[in-house]
Amino acid sequence: MSTEGAGVLFLKPGQIVVSSHPLLVTTLLGSCVAVTMFCQRLKTGGICHAQLPTCREREAEGVTHPGRFMDSALREMLARLLERGALAGELEVKVFGGSDMFQGRGRGRAVGRQNAEMALAVLARESIKVLNQDLFGERGRKIIFHTHTGAVFLKRLNRSGVC
Questions:
Q1: What is the number of other CB atoms lying within 10 angstroms of the CB of residue 46?
Q2: Do residues 29 and 14 touch, judged by C-beta distance below 8 A?
Q3: How far apart are CA 161 and CA 22, in angstroms?
Q4: Residue 84 pLDDT > 50
Q5: Which EC class is the enzyme in (predicted)?
Q6: What would the pLDDT profile of 20-67 be if each residue is shown by its tens digit?
Q7: Among 28, 52, 66, 102, whose Cα sits 20 to 30 Å from the Cα of 162?
């Protein structure tokens, strides 16, 4: 797989990228979740890096920063891909992150678990099949997504305060 001529981008929390141009998108995940979507026919890929499962002001007309929230980030990324001519049934989808980086702090379900569960629930609601996933655990992840091939490379990090 050639990466010659591909641009490089570091995806920050709350960002969404959809590109038909070759990009190598790198991001670091802890409790955050990244979802990649790739359309082979169009050679177009998208990735989002969401920090929280859902916007508390759900009834609000428009979320100011849709990439921050898993539910709105997925809807936004999917809309961008469909606008470019992708069909939901042909998307190759992969989901990463959702670690419990601060195990034992606080009560209830950790935000990482909530982020991952929200991602899977939204994708299921949209009838989008997840091809691969690497979720939960106690370690952060570094991923590199190739927007022009759909390939994702994953490295598990030492326990630290990533994202």
A1: 26
A2: no
A3: 30
A4: yes
A5: hydrolase
A6: 999 999 999 999 999 999 999 999 999 999 999 997 655 445 556 889
A7: 66
State residue 29's pLDDT score: 96
Supply 69's token pair: 């929230």
Q: How far is Cα 132 from Cα 121, in angstroms, rounded to an integer?
A: 15
Domain 7-156 class in CATH: alpha beta
Tallying the residues shown for the chain, one arrives at 163
Question: What is the distance between the alpha carbons of residues 8 and 88, in angstroms, rounded to a whole number?
Answer: 26
All structural domains of the chain with their residue ranges: 7-156
Distance between CA atoms of residues 6 and 3, nearest Å? 5
Model confidence pLDDT, tens digit, residues 114-128: 999 999 999 999 999
Spatial separation of the C-alpha atoms in residues 160 and 101, rounded to whole Å: 7
Pairing of strands 44-50, 91-97: unpaired
Residue 125 Cα distances to 11, 129, 130, angstroms = 26, 10, 12
Taking the C-alpha atoms of residue 69 and residue 114, their distance in angstroms, rounded to an integer, is 11
Q: Is 89 helix (H, G, I), strand (E, B) or coil?
A: helix
pTM here is: 0.88
Q: Does the pLDDT at position 106 exceed 80?
A: no
Any alpha helices (H) in the chain, and if so which ranges?
70-83, 111-125
